[in-house]
Amino acid sequence: MESKNRYSLLELNSLVREAIECELPNEYWVEAELSECRESYGHCYMDLIQRKENAATPVARASAKCWASKWQIIRPYFERTTGQQLRAGMKVLLKVYAQFHEAYGFSWIVTDIDPNYTLGDQARRRQEIIRQLKEEGVFDLQRELALPLFCLNIAVISSKTAAGYGDFAAQLADSPFAFHSQLFPAIMQGEGVEQSIIAALNNIFFTIHQQQPFDCVVIIRGGGATSDMSGFDTLALAENVANFPLPIITGIGHDRDECILDMVSHQRVKTPTAAAAFLIDHVQAVADAIDDVQNRMTRYTQQKLTTLHSQLSTLQQALPRLFSVFKTRQEARLESIELRIPMIAERKLTAEHHKLELVTERLKALDPILLLKRGYSITRFCGHTLRDPMKLHEGDVIETIMEKGTIKSIIK
Questions:
Q1: Which residues in the chain are classed under CATH 3.40.50.2300?
Q2: I need a surface site. Which of 56, 64, 148, 319 has the fewest CB within 10 A?
Q3: DSSP state of 6
Q4: Where exactly does CATH 2.40.50.140 map onto the chain?
Q5: 338 has pLDDT over 90
């Protein structure tokens, strides 16, 4: 082979660089998904991919770099606008130009990033998650739960070292109510937010079925950049929160927008201290309601006692008069009865006397002496009237009673 057809690698790469610089001299806006994003020595290194819809395998892949001089300007603006850091899985619109280096190969050099494109993609993704939650019928499940009247046993999901958790616990401890809170530690920023909070919810669910009946769950995040909020905008986390059997209160420390976690929770507040204030105010409202009922019952009882006392006083005053009237009526009744007694007694005596005369006449009719006077006699044996002569035997003595005397006879 002739030496004039041979190229060193450096020479060939230089030809590629010159071709690229000649054919692609401009900057281009490119849509891509970040499969990796990392910083090193102030520079940002990205791996870009493009996927087909509903396919996991990329159809295009490229490396991109943003040098420190640009990155220190682009990154703060992007994070302020979107509220998030660049991360894997995020769709971006980058302004790039082509660069080929003889030693390092081809790369797209990033000169700008359009945050509005990413915001639009995030909004579309959030709307899709919300739509799916509503189709599943779980979007409003948490708001259908009732916060217990005496909501004192609190399960807390937070970072163990977060200042916000300390403020939350201190505020409950300083309240006049006997709150009891138990921490279930979780990662509250970065890539592990979703799985860490779901694991904490599972631990709480296991605990309430084993030993500790919690009244509600509080998810709080004290401090942290708003750029770390993406972990709270996931379908899996939203489904777990929406289907949880206890009311969930969120206080994850951001004012600008609601995350999906806020949307499906029972109650959203801004900060951990606001979550503590919400719980204290809730119990205070119940205590105030109880005090109000107690005061009303006391007033009603006092009014009732006053009324009864007044009625008793009136009765005491009327009692002598009522007794006098009663006494007069009873005396009049007694006098009427006394006047009627002789008449009633006389009428009774007359009736009884008449009955006696009738009985006397009947007795006279039955008098045996009258029978004797008519010629009849009465035979007696052993002191009894003899009716059957067959009961007599020889030698028996009988008596025959007649009007003028008695005859004794011996049976032969």
A1: 137-285
A2: 56
A3: -
A4: 3-121
A5: no
Q: Report d(CA 388, CA 57) in Å as an integer.
A: 142
Interval 122-174: pLDDT, tens: 778 888 888 999 999 999 999 999 999 999 999 999 988 888 899 999 999 99
Residue 180 confidence (pLDDT): 93
pLDDT at 223: 60
The top-level CATH class assigned to 137-285 is alpha beta
- The answer to which of 72-76, 119-123, 245-249 has the lowest mean pLDDT is 119-123
**Nearest-angstrom CA–CA distance, 57 and 55:** 6
Residues 6+ apart with CB under 8 A from 62: 32, 47, 48, 106, 107, 108
The CATH number given to 3-121 is 2.40.50.140
Length of the chain measured in residues: 412
Classify 376 as helix, strand or coil: coil
For 21, residues 6+ apart whose C-beta sits below 8 A from its C-beta are 98, 100
Strand order in the sheet with 153-158: 180-185, 153-158, 216-220, 248-251, 267-268
CA–CA dist 340, 379 (Å, integer):
55
Place of tokens 């009946």: 213
Q: How buried is residue 338: exposed, middle or buried, by Cβ count under 10 Å (0-12/13-18/19+)?
A: exposed
- The encoded tokens of residue 182 equal 């138990």
